[in-house]
Amino acid sequence: MVCDDDQGILDVVELMLEIEGYHVIKVIDSTTLQEKLQNSRPDLLLLDLWMPIISGEQILKSLRSSSDFNDLPVIIFSASMDGAEIAERANANAFLSKPFDMVQLASVVEEVIN
């Protein structure tokens, strides 16, 4: 599952991951993410850090305090200069700096899933 408020990024990430053989569920609205997680039960969540209304950091902290999703692998991705620190503080499994290429994305996803 990929959650980002930018449709272009969602589409590019979906394409990149589908080329690698993954099934991708896109979520553009962070306020609907919890419900979609409940319904879909993904193997991994790629989560943008800076989104309107509910930030990726807030979502991740909520997931980590939930018995349903505290062990869900989460990769935070962001163009933020302090994104890696925020991701680490919120207990993300990995951080990916925007912009990234297909090789970087595939490598981080593979590392976190395995």
Verbal overview:
The protein has helices at about 5-20, 35-40, 55-65, 85-90, 100-114; strands spanning about 1-5, 25, 45-50, 75-80, 95. It is globular, with a radius of gyration of 13 Å. The longest helix is centred in the N-terminal third of the chain and has 13 residues, at about 5-20. Strands 2-1-3-4-5 form a five-stranded parallel sheet, sandwiched between helices. The chain has a single domain (about 1-114), classed as 3-Layer(aba) Sandwich (Rossmann fold). By secondary structure, it is α/β, with parallel strands linked by helices. The protein is built from five helices and five strands, in the order E-H-E-H-E-H-E-H-E-H. Helices cover about 45% and strands about 15% of the residues.
Number of domains: 1
Tell me what portion of residues adopts beta-strand conformation: 5-15%
Number of DSSP helical runs: 5
Q: Unreliable segments (pLDDT under 50, ≥5 consecutive)? A: none
